[in-house]
Amino acid sequence: MSLDDGEIDLNDIIRIMISSDNHLGYGEKDPIRGEDSFIAFEEMLELAVKEDVDFILLGGDLFHDAVPSQNALFKCMNLLRMYTFGDKPIAVELIDGNQQFHGAINESVNYEDPNLNVAIPVYSIHGNHDDPSSFGGLSSLDLLSTAGLINYFGRWTDLTKVEISPILLKKGATRLALYGLSHIHDARLSRLFESRKVQIQAPSDNDGEWFHLMVVHQNRADRGPKNYLPEIALPEFLNLIIWGHEHDCHIEPQFNAQRNFYVSQPGSSVCTSLSEGEALQKHVGILEIYKDKFQMKPIPLKTVRPFIFESVNVASLADELHLDEGDVSNKVRDMAEKRATAMIEKAKEMVTDHVKQPKLPNIRLRIVYSDEEQMFNHIRLGQIFNDRVANPADMIHFKKLIKKAKAEKSESSPEKMKVQFKRKESENITKVEDLVELYYNNLDESKSLKVLSSKALAEVCHQMVERNDNNAAENLIKSYQKKALDYLMDNMVAEENVNVELQKFKQEITSDDIFNLLSSSTNKVRQTLKQNTPNLENSRASNSDNENSDDDCLPLKNVRATGAKKNETRTAVNKRGGTSGRARGSVDTGRTRSTRLMPQLEISTKSVDEYPDDMDVELDRFLSGYCRMAIPRPFQVTNIDLYLQQLIIFSSRTLSND
Q1: Is 354 a residue of the active site?
Q2: Of residues 23, 102, 126, 129, which has the active-site annotation?
Q3: What are the boundaries of the region Disordered (predicted)?
């Protein structure tokens, strides 16, 4: 759509800088790629100033880690202060929406705070990387909001229902209703939509014509049953949806004929996974809105590191490489070296005139093979390009070609169809927390856990794998212990019935119960902050000390060669490597933590019946790399379960005697 009509008053057009998935702090300890996320973020802010936008709208995942490092927080806060503060008057008026801003001292937009001088407001929802579901209930965006740097909205506070009210803004004759849906686990959000517990409230038309703009951070592509948010689930009164989380850049609005709205997918501003979608040109956009009309002006980012992705199927080159004779591995290696050299030359065409653009390119050559003899030592090959590419260790990626057997024809009875659907649903599960929950739900009674719920273990794995929260296991078990003890005391359980009641407690606990533990922690933190924070009038004359409590991307890692057979049979779900920042509460030993390889959780992605016998051992090994609790060793999930059971029984006896 075009707004280049000369009759339109420019004072009636709302201009918004659109960006998403900035992933600040991604690979920050990498000596070559460590600054990439900050450089691209700064370019976006520079463009916002240059284009004279009314405000900036971010689609989530501002930070890469749930608990960003001090370095990442400092650089982010420094850039926001540098580019968004100033004497420029704010042209957009806030009509309603004060209740939407979380963490704000004055419970309103930051530019209405008399102690701040904001020139370009920043509005942001949270994504799956910076959401507040870590133990303690605070997001990194809460810290930025409390500091007055951003306007944090769209945060959910009740996982049993989601009610979305718009922020109402006005500029001249244009009225904007801004809706935010921060990230919620896709399966949970799907259940909420199915049970009609998601309500999106629109302003009354009596107040005039509104442009309805929504920003979400969920899976958009179909990644299996209940593992994405279908566009048709969103209301048709919306005009435009800014869709975060997906890193492929499709910022040009795409029309959805079923719901009669447009969807814009900005993509990420930094490459966090060397996939084909990340190789698309990165953009930000200037969204211009006039009454019920809009137009998006894509702006390519010039500071993004060049990235070339190619995929080659060895089978298609069998005749050309004469793979039926001689040393197959060396022939494939020579082919890969020539391809990589050509890709480096191609990457030179992506170098811009921007002085801050990193020049060494990211290169990813995916080699699809069908036989192990077609593989070679890709680490050694990468060393040849050590000073020519930014990622020599993971420049080559091997992917085995799997031929699927033809499905046999079967009767289509309702019972058989139901079984096949459930089997298909389990095969589509790719998230580690879902696999862990399935595994422990299907154990024999003799091996089953006595106190710990499979949902609790699944949540621990989600926090560790998806959000890099190294304190998850320790904190969840402490909260779980307290809830179990409260359950026993509330029901006045006799000592001989404690084990039976603990089994009931384990069976009755739900995912929402586990998240309610987080909510209760959040409320306590907020009450403490409110008690210790003076109002704005008294703050000028008082210097009280406030205590702040804080609690679809492969990280850069130190790569080491592993056995080929192991890689065939298992999928590494968590590949943190050693780049994550120091966990809160850890002791600085003076050693460089970036050299430490955190454990990898490797589990089968097949159906439950085909899980390896040592899956519980694999999970034990994974969790032991994170937990520092004083529990009996060796570290085992069953050992924790027994320890927790004994601790709860002992505590209940003590309380009963008191």
Answers
A1: no
A2: 129
A3: 526-594
